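TICKET #2291
ISSUE: user wants both folds in one file
ATTACHMENT 1:
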Amino acid sequence: MSEFHLTEDQQDCLQELINIAMGQASDQLARYLDTFVYLKVPSIESIDAKDLLQTLSQQKNTMAVVSQGFFGYEGIRGEALLSYQEEDSGRIGDLLGYEPDELSQDEQLIDISSILTTTFLNVFARQIDNQMSYNAPKLLPSVQNCLSEHLQEMTFNWDLALKININYQVTDYSFNCNMILLIPETAIINIKKVLDRILAEF
């Protein structure tokens, strides 16, 4: 087995940690946004770098993608990509309680992305006794070559990554977006050590 691939116990442990983090993050977001936030159980899979762009391009009607890097202790790091459909982008101002023309649509996308990313990852980090720091979020055009250039310019080099896909739904506003967490192979090896430590305690 490759150093990268998770054992069944490690996969179950990671899934449980993410589920717990999702539940707590959903509650925090609901309180912050004053509305119900539903997070679907995420899919976790390994993905080749060359397949990632194709995966993103298959998401229909994607208007924009916001990228935000994150890093913690013990070599844990990655990139969060949040994708939005055109019909959802106009609802962000209402969701965040902004006045008309208070912020541009691009600024609204960056704001909501930062809230969604940091809320979930901060809760997840606490589950593994870690703490996350973040790069400034960056709005990317959904044009395929722009995404390709960004993936090549990420702060880490990777050929294989763990892709965790999380879907957010805010029912009162008919708003939803997808968050993909890309964790490079070197960071996964470090996460496996953390998972083994957690498993050894049970």
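ATTACHMENT 2:
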Amino acid sequence: MKASVGDHLIVESIHGGRAGRIGIVVALYHTDGSPPYLVRWLDEERETPCFYPGPDARIEHYWERSPESP
């Protein structure tokens, strides 16, 4: 998984009844875009300073998003 600053990190819910989460990658620790990432979560307005995405996560690159996306 590779990300750039500004990409959305989408974590799908694997537990019934729980919503997925969307975060924005606000900083990279590696120049090649590999994890971990500093992520600001849109649902809580807080940051996770060292996030390692699991198998339920995917990156939506900022240049691929529609203009209507948050």
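RESOLUTION: both attachments delivered.
EXTRA DETAIL ON ATTACHMENT 2: The mean pLDDT is 87.
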